[in-house]
């Protein structure tokens, strides 16, 4: 007779964990509701106010530090996924749940989450790419390059413009009342759920949904991904979009510092030069692009902190994904599907715990233009991710970097034109210095690779020690 006790214990762990998180969230909701209310009372005769979400209650209590409180509540909501996952993992290891002879749908799901599968796939992004690339003519190469260029430009320029609009502009609702949309987590959820649906359908159609990686390993990259996206949206409440775009170009500086301190990496002269140029350009830009509406010391410091946290989590995401690619050799579409799956679970659970779904849907019903912007934002984000993978697989990382650098420059220009950001001549010089440093870095990287290849060819693969090839800038 089959033993159902392990399955019941796992179900019990899930139910108890979710119930505990729900009870604590209700206590938080009641404690915030009982505190001092900074908002004006509703006028007499008006419709009764709907129950506010935790995020909205936090906004009513504190303005300067509301982002920090929302962050803590969001992370607490992610425990709805983390806590049951950790407990089930510990229980399955201690009880040898995965090694028992009886199989069920639940045990298969647990095995898929914590052990992966033995199935192998042919890669979606590699394999035939090199052969297909050699057979393409120059005209076909140009057509494909233009396809990738316009695809990346169109999707991410649209995404950038709508991102700033949703987080900074007011939407007109009933009775001509204007209000801001403030729940950044709902935007992350909408972006990730559409990305997951598109990639899941693609993998099912291509029969590429089995691979060796345990599903839970995507959760780390997913958590850092949603945190970086959340910090990115929140930063727009304190700094303008051009500042955010230019700050993304400075990620190389903390990466070099950490590599020097931790890994004792050695860098070329041009790498130090471009890092200094990026720093100087960023200082010029920040000096010449002060936004009078966001000019206080508190908002500036908060914006810089949010951008820093965005870069930290974003750097971890790319590094962890790189390790997964090396260890399990999955395709880029599988990576995108796995990360978006956990991102959907994390943000969905947190929104349900906070009541954020209801408040966001109420805002969407009262502001139809927000729905259109949100849908287009999610579509452009998902399509942009697909274009990233296709461009890197077809032309390599260097061409992709050049295209995205051009996209950042155009995004700054569009933001200044559409939303009327004022940038002085010194700020323009700072922008030019940053992008000049990025192009110089890409050029030097390519030239150094070419020198190394010629050096290896000339040496004929000998085992003797040779001088390290260098370039002069």
Could you give a short description of this structure?
Belongs to the nucleotide-sugar transporter family. SLC35B subfamily. The protein is mainly α and 473 residues long.
Keywords:
SCL35B1-4/HUT1, 2 strands, globular, mainly alpha, 2 domains, 473 residues, two-stranded antiparallel ribbon, disordered C terminus
| Mean pLDDT across residues | 76
Number of helices: 17
Structural class by sheet pairing and helices: mainly alpha
Proportion of strand residues: under 5%
In terms of quaternary structure, what is this?
A: single chain
Specify the overall morphology: globular
In helices, the fraction of residues equals over 70%
> What value does the Rg take, in angstroms?
25 Å
Q: Main β-sheet, in a few words? A: 2 strands, antiparallel
End-to-end separation in angstroms reads: 75 Å
SSE order: HHHHHHEEHHHHHHHHHHH
Low-confidence stretches: 36-40, 43-48, 120-133, 468-473
| Spatial sequence of strands, sheet with the most strands | 1-2
Number of domains: 2
The overall strand count is 2
InterPro entries: SCL35B1-4/HUT1
Protein name: Adenosine 3'-phospho 5'-phosphosulfate transporter 1
Main location: membrane
Membrane topology: Multi-pass membrane protein
